[in-house]
Amino acid sequence: MNSQKRIFIGIALAVGFGLVGLCWLSSGHAGEVSSKEYEISVPEMKSDTQRMIEAYERLSDQYLTLVQTQLGGMASGDREVLARLDRIERKLDNLSAKLDAQLKPGGDPLSATPVIPAQVPSAKEDTKSKAK
Length: 132
Prior knowledge:
Distance between the termini: 125 Å
Number of strands: 0
Largest sheet: none
Oligomer: single chain
Radius of gyration: 52 Å
Structural class: mainly alpha
């Protein structure tokens, strides 16, 4: 009987180890290999085309600013030119009135009344009024 006990214990141990092994295989630990995953972040590299586009955008912004400042300067210069042209026109109207008076028979050239057109504020007066 002793040999039958040993065979029975051997079979029981084999079945026990088999069950333990089967449980271990089914739990997923058998094929697991220790591995580590590393995340490496590399800064984004810009291509030559991207750098060229960014440089062109900066250049166009600078050009736009330059054009805006030039147009602003031209506008103030235009006001001064218009005021000066108005002064010249008044002087020419005065001369024309004097010549008309001289050409009329019996007219006194010194008594001719000058024609004064409507006043246009000069650029200096315009900036003074804006400052107030």
